[in-house]
Amino acid sequence: MFVFFLPFFGIGINRNKDDSVGSGRNLNFEETFESKPTIELPSEVSYEGRAIEQARLLDAIAAVAVKYPDDPLVYHIAGIALTEASQFEKAIENLEKATSLDASQVEPVLMLADAYVKSGKQEKAIEMLNRAIARGLTSASLFLALGDTLSQLGRTDEAIQYLEKSRDLDSRNALTYRYLAQAYVDAGRFEEAEQAASKAVRLGAVESSIYTLWALSLARQGKTEEATQVRSKTPKREAAMEQDKDVLEQMFLEATSHHYAMLGKVCSANKSFEEAEKYLLQGLKLDPKSTMSTAILADLFHRQGRDSDCMALSKILMEIEPDNVVHYWNFANLAMSSRNVSLAEKTLLQATEIDPTGTSDLLMAQLLMNLRKSDNLVKYARRAVDRLGTVDAYVVLISALQATGEPNAARMEILKARKIAPNDPRLAG
């Protein structure tokens, strides 16, 4: 996803009188913006059934692998798709290739461990995960996978050690507490099992199995009444079965769309733009509101110099994710590049209204400086300082105060900024 930041004036620059804020450089005009891209984007799901879509995806992956045999991402995608299709041996072959080409990525390692386990090769999964951890590739998800696999083999004490490491790195994962509850029950540590099970439920776990573990751990402690209450709260799954089918179908469509987006990314990285566009559009047929496919397609257009199409996609991204300020920044930058200054200013204004971090305020102040506009310039620059507290924000505020005829206030801000970065050359003099 492309992200651009508008340049701002540094302090200490010698300006002519005509360069002051308020002199109104002749940039502020607006061109018509056609929001519809030149290509036709899917508006509804086009889906021919799971088997057909899986076969089509696997053919596409194989074709990309032939063209780019040294790209580990291709084999990673293949491994995921083949695992989803229950072709575990082929999945293992591709994921082993992915990890041999690039051993620094956690996700292919996790997928390879999962494929090993699903093909009944738990010991091989444990060996591979231990090697990855020994190489320094540690994460909560790796410890979780290792702990779960050890637990499946009845190596409970070892499993608990790794599950607790995973919990310590990520205390908000309900699945970690679910696995811990089972391991604690297996180890006869019922009080800890009770705590882990109740925590899993508080974090959103709804499986009947976690309520069973919770009730069991209570019963084994003699808390019969509490165990009965927990059993009575167990979600009824029968009524939700039809809904579950719809959810699974949607998950399949989103996952397959994601795989096509990754294929598009591989092709785009190798400058095969036409092929990349084909795969991205195929992904959008399965999930028309896919942020990933839309964002990669927008980036693809940007790399090709198709700024009008890029702007159209960026506008769609704002509609899909109206709370994601990055989309507003990109759209404003593209508007500036096309000299549609009013649109850029309007877009950044919208960003400042939803962005509490101060970054959008900083960008707005930079834009106003570049446009030589004094209205609200100091307001946004000061808000950026208050929210960000960075030297860059101070530099913009100092420039804004100097440009609007407040040198004394500017000097005060210089003193504050020097406390943060006493050696920053922008604060010298």
Main sheet makeup = none
**How many strands appear in the DSSP assignment?**
0
For this structure, the CATH topology of the domain at 1-37 and 324-429 is Serine Threonine Protein Phosphatase 5, Tetratricopeptide repeat
Encode the helix/strand succession as letters. HHHHHHHHHHHHHHHHHHHHH
CATH class bucket of the domain at 1-37 and 324-429: Mainly Alpha
**CATH superfamily heading of the domain at 1-37 and 324-429:** Tetratricopeptide repeat domain
**Proportion of residues in helical segments:** 55-70%
Shape: globular
Secondary structure category: mainly alpha
Task: Give your account of this protein's structure.
With 429 residues, the protein is mostly helical. It has a domain at 1-37 and 324-429: Serine Threonine Protein Phosphatase 5, Tetratricopeptide repeat (Alpha Horseshoe). It contains 21 helices and no strands. Helix 2 (72-84) packs parallel to helix 4 (106-118). The radius of gyration is 28 Å and the shape is globular. It starts with 49 loop residues before the first helix and ends in a 9-residue tail after the last helix.
